[in-house]
Automatic annotation (TrEMBL):
InterPro entries: F420H2_quin_Rdtase, Split_barrel_FMN-bd. One of its GO terms (molecular function) is oxidoreductase activity. NCBIfam families: hi_GC_TIGR00026 (TIGR00026). It holds the Pfam family F420H2_quin_red. This is Deazaflavin-dependent oxidoreductase (Nitroreductase family). It comes from Amycolatopsis echigonensis.
Length: 125
């Protein structure tokens, strides 16, 4: 189970607008800058993102078919802004992991409660 589409719509309209001004500055948050697959338009999506040894990982709380995920996968690259720094990322890889190993322990437990088992792994350039 991933979070319902109604919640995703609410987040796009309300929560994302509220969190955008600070999402790129706080630990565990960031903004992914990506281009639309069809429009070519630039989008900035605030999300929870965590560092790995060679890049970043994002829990796909709305599943792997979310528009931003599809955009990043189609382009093969994006930009991550987190804690005041910009990073080019590439080679987006979908990972299914029921143990939720890529996530920090507290986050792992929460994701278990909502049934999230898919992640997007991004390599830093």
């Amino acid at each position: 189970m991933v979070l319902p589409e109604r919640l995703a719509r609410f987040n796009r309209v309300v929560t994302n607008r509220v969190t955008k001004p600070f999402a790129d500055k706080l630990p565990g948050f960031g903004v992914i800058v990506h281009r639309g697959r069809k429009s070519g338009r630039e989008f900035r999506t605030p999300l929870n993102i965590f560092r790995t040894d060679d890049g970043f990982v994002v829990a796909l709380t709305y599943g792997p078919d979310a528009d931003w995920v599809r955009n990043v996968r189609a382009a093969g690259e994006a930009e991550v802004i987190t804690r005041g720094h910009k990073y080019r990322v590439r080679d987006p890889e979908l990972v299914h992991d029921e143990s939720r190993r890529p996530m920090p322990p507290g986050v792992r437990q929460f994701l278990g409660l909502v049934g999230v088992t898919d992640f997007l792994v991004l390599k830093r350039e």
